[in-house]
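Weekly modeling sync, notes
Attendees: S.R. (lead), two postdocs, one rotation student

Agenda item 3: backlog of single-chain predictions. S.R. asked that every request posted to the team notebook include the full sequence so nobody has to chase files. The rotation student volunteered to paste the first one in as an example of the format we agreed on. Action items at the bottom.

Example entry:
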Amino acid sequence: MDNYQKNQEFSKGTISPMDAFSWIEKGFFQHLESNKLTTKEQMQTFTDKYKMKFAENEVKVKHLIKNELDKGNVFFTLIAVAAYDTFLELGISKEEAILLTDECINKPSRSYIIEGTRKMLDYSSNPYQSLVEASKEREQYFFGESFEFDRQIDNEYGYVLHVKKCLFHLVLKELKRQELQHSLCRMDLGWINGINPEKHNLQFVRPITFSTGNTCQMWFMKKEKELIKD
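Predicted structure, as returned to the notebook:
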């Protein structure tokens, strides 16, 4: 499967969360090693400590897993927490550990997700509708019942989604690692940055997330085409 196909599936939620986030975990370690963010000696130590931290935290949040979708979504959060905890244990400052965790979980996949989203919208006769449909598919088949979605507006011009409950947020609260919420929310920048408002006649705004408040809102808005001037 090439990167375009992989991200078409990722963007539409047709692969499982566990498959998608296993790919993220693999990219994390590849990025860590290829960018020499740790020495060769530290790499084995990091891997061993990461596995230990992951296992310890997994036990603490096992009660939050209610179904198969939850397993993958909890897995993603545990990747970030285990990586962050490992950086801290290696003597890296809290601020630098947050930045390194953010970089390693988001940077490897972002360009591919942007590319996949952009191509999906470029080839669509109605980019707004395509993106909204992809979002709805993911709500049901990727996130599931441990997330709570309230569709406050849902018509041909706008789709305002109020996320009242987020499993990522619940896991971070349980592990007392809410400082990583911003990094997890930044995963969405891949498909968000794939939107070209002028070309796709589509605007997206995310005025609040669980990293800045107690809810998350996503506003998809169809953009009226500008009249061609003489």
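Discussion: group reviewed the output briefly. The chain has a mean pLDDT of 90.
Action items: rotation student to repeat for the remaining queue; S.R. to check formatting next week.
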